[in-house]
């Protein structure tokens, strides 16, 4: 384990065997239930199923895991890939720690002969204790939005929950006493979603009532650089090319404080 202390109120612990940030203690209490992990998949919508969703499942986007290739430091090199299929995303994740918080920078290079043409999403998934139940953000809102379904949503500071939010400059999630704030610094904004359901729970439920027993006490907090557009695949054309999240080299950065 690598433990880093910055100031009197912040302490981070890295698991040096896998390079993951496994603990972040603020004011004496850990605010992470699980480490942040890279993710390239979302629970399939009705629009996804007849179009890109088929190859997401075939190429096993929902089964990607970290495969580490080098010695692990605060800057971590990893190979993220599904079982069997010959494709991967080679990533370098750099954690910059300071009294302010932690900057997470991810440089990813997708490659392989069976590389899917598109990804569902590129971003981080965190789980946080149930007390973190208040969300506020600056970006498009108050309703759900995606890169091809957002012009009806206005820029402002909002505090509703449920669904993906796009063009987000910053988002904070708090428990009253403690707060985690994420800022997207590239100027183009990012996406976030906060819920009590994992991607696997959503994907395996055909009806809303099936989610009742799959609800977590923890909050699943997703911070995404980009999302594949929704399109109208369940009853019309697929996602337009300009809104597709193609599997190309990317750089992603977010500040957590």
From TrEMBL:
Q: Which PANTHER family match?
A: BETA-GALACTOSIDASE
Alphabetical GO biological process terms: lactose catabolic process
Q: What is this protein called?
A: beta-galactosidase
Every Beta galactosidase small chain/ domain range: 4-257
> Might you report a single GO cellular component term?
beta-galactosidase complex
Q: Which GO terms describe its molecular function?
A: beta-galactosidase activity; carbohydrate binding
The record's section on InterPro entries has: B-gal_small/dom_5 (IPR004199), Bact_Beta-galactosidase (IPR050347), Gal_mutarotase_sf_dom (IPR011013), GH-type_carb-bd (IPR014718)
Keyword Hydrolase in annotation: yes
Q: Which UniProt keywords apply?
A: Glycosidase, Hydrolase
One Pfam assignment: Bgal_small_N
Q: Which organism is it from?
A: Rhodocollybia butyracea
Identify the Gene3D superfamilies for this entry.
2.70.98.10
Organism's domain of life?
Eukaryota
What EC designation does it have? Answer: 3.2.1.23
Q: Which reaction does it catalyse?
A: Hydrolysis of terminal non-reducing beta-D-galactose residues in beta-D-galactosides
